[in-house]
Structures are given as structure tokens and as C-alpha cells.
Design a protein that fits this description.
279 residues; mainly alpha; Hypothetical protein af1432
Length: 279
Amino acid sequence: MADDLRLAHRNRILAVKDLPTLPKVLEEVTRLVADPNSSTDQVAKLIAYDQVLSAKVLKMVNSPIYGFPGRIGSIQHALVLLGLNVIKGVIISTSVFDFMISTMNGLWEHSLGCALACTEIAKVAGLEEPEEYSVPGLLHDLGKVVTAVQLPDIRQELDATVKERDCTYREAEALVIGFTHEAVNGWLAQHWRLPLKIREGMAWHHAPTRAEHYPAAACVVHLADFLVKAYEYGFSGDDQVPYLDPNALKILKLDGDALDTVMDALAEKFLEVADISFS
């Protein structure tokens, strides 16, 4: 019976019919990228065709998250500087921006903070293409948004469970619907054919050592989520700081000094984005 209910919830979530602009643009972009005869120019034109979306994407890529504030003037320029995987993540996040704002007050700020932290952690850890790690950071709580949109009748029960049991939102998800937002992240990332590194960062950020192919990506998001919650930047459904797996620091080869460097950089970044609006 419990398995049937869990399967029913999963099927309703994967319908994702109420997330506009996302499937069409993203599917077309993914199709073009898979075609060896397509060009960056074609991908840029496709994104730019949706003027509202392209304006939001440009605003995001010119934010302090990506290190080129005010310097990226076109979608094509963004593709060259940041790569397609980052732009795909930005498309998804900007497309669900309104839903994120309306679903949970403070969730957008928490996600933005996590993206910032992911980039800083990846830089200090010496990982290649650190900007790419911002994508799973930005999308790591997307499962909460999609669950709230697809299962609106359950949202109040989740909030009530967090309050009554003084537990994390994740624990409430497990109790009420039988799975957690990381599972939803994994389903969606696979459904949208996101790269495996981004998928594992989204799906395993609460259990980073279980990531099979890209544990560093999961560890980066895991640590970023911990830091942003510790800083109390934004709100992700509960006011508790999540468990920090010490193995994540070992995998990333970060000691106390390196962590101090990340925290100092992060404090400055939070000040830079404090007054930025993405609406």
C-alpha cells in the first residue's frame, strides 16, 4: 500500500505539466546540442527567441555568481564563457523562479546562496570549471518546488510536520510522501537529460559519498548547503543546520584554513547579491 502511494506521488511529480517554458526550450536546446551539425549560434538564437527568458538568463549570468558582473552582453557570449551546462541550469532556475518565490519564502535566496558557495568551494578545492558547480547548487532544492506544485494538497502537511516534530523538511518529506526532494531531483535531472555530474550533485547532496561517478560534485553541494544554512541565508523549509559529513571535506581535500577562505569569500559574495532582484 505504501509502495503504491509512493508510486502514485512519483508519477504525479514527473508529469511536471505546470512548469511553463521549461520543457519546450530545454528540450530544443538539448536536441540541438546532441546534433553534431548544430552550432553555438543556433543554440543562442533559440534561447534568445524567448525574450523574457533570455533577459532573465542574462541577468543571472551577469550576477556575482559567475564572476563576470555586467560583462556578458549576449546569450552567445554567455555560452562561450560559461558553457552549455551552466546555461541549461540557469534556464531551469530562471524558469522556475516565480514558482520558487511563491512556493517557499526564502527558498530562492537559499538556492542562490548555495550556488555562490558551490563556486567558491570548487575554486578553493582546485576543481576544474568551478562555475559549473553552481548549477547543482542552484537546483539542489528544485525537488521541493516541483513537489509543492505537483502535490499542492500535501504541502500544508509537510509544513505542519516540520513544525510539530521540530524536524527537517527532508525528514518531513520522508514521513509524509515516502521519499525526499533529492530523489525528485534525480528523477527530474534524468528526465531532462542533465549531465551526470550535475545530476549526482543534485541527487546526492545529503549523502555525498553515495555518488557513484562524481562524488566531488555531491560533496561541493553538501558543504555549500551546510554553510548557507549555517549563515542563515535564505530559508529552505526549516531552520535546522544539516549534518556535515566529514568525509566530504576529505574528498575535497579541504582543511580548516581552506574552509576559512571559503567562508570569508562567501561573506563578501552575500553582501554583493543582497540587493539583486531576479524578477
